């Protein structure tokens, strides 16, 4: 009886894994989440007009968020990841990242991204790779810290007691030395997040 249950359990796990992998193969973009202030754990923006919402893989979480009120006057870090596989070749994976890092965030208000402030960082990367054998990068677009960045982060709610951080953002990145098959300018618009620290 025990062996039979174990086999059934393994069959269920394998079936679930196949279904989940099947769901992750395609690049399925959804609508942006509403701009709420309730700690719903949401994040979204548009990258050059395309909807970007976090999506986890089996090993990578879709959102990583931290806020430390004791470091640099209040340090905020948000890293959002969108991951999918090519539906025609499941060995090809694409990973897209939008990240924000800001210091001196102590209360709701407007904060700015610019090169003059080393604590105000905004970033975007996209990498396509072949994972059939050893991981081989097919395309990697990224921006260096020295590249031009400009934009605004509007913190609409910062509730330390409840652990809620919500706001909106937009920024533009301009690469000084363009990379092959990559845009030299990326515009992030209609950004919003409603996060809860646990």
What would a concise description of this structure say?
The protein has 198 residues and is mainly β. Helix content is 12%, strand content 48%.
Would you kindly provide a written description of the structure presented here, covering whatever features stand out?
With 198 residues, the protein is mainly beta. The chain has one domain. Helix content is 12%, strand content 48%. It has one helix at residues 2-25; strands at 42-47, 50-52, 63-68, 75-85, 92-102, 109-114, 120-130, 136-141, 148-159, 164-174, 185-196. A six-stranded antiparallel sheet has the order 2-1-11-10-9-6, with no helix packed on it. A hairpin with a 2-residue loop joins β1 and β2. The longest helix is centred in the N-terminal third of the chain and has 24 residues, at 2-25. 22% of the residues are buried. The model is unreliable at 1-25 (pLDDT under 50).
C-alpha Rg, in Å?
A: 19 Å
What's the helix-strand series?
Answer: HEEEEEEEEEEE
| Uncertain runs | 1-25
Count the helices. How many? Answer: 1
Helix and strand layout, with pairings?
Elements: H1 2-25, E1 42-47, E2 50-52, E3 63-68, E4 75-85, E5 92-102, E6 109-114, E7 120-130, E8 136-141, E9 148-159, E10 164-174, E11 185-196
Antiparallel strand pairs: 1-2, 1-11, 3-4, 4-5, 5-7, 6-9, 7-8, 9-10, 10-11
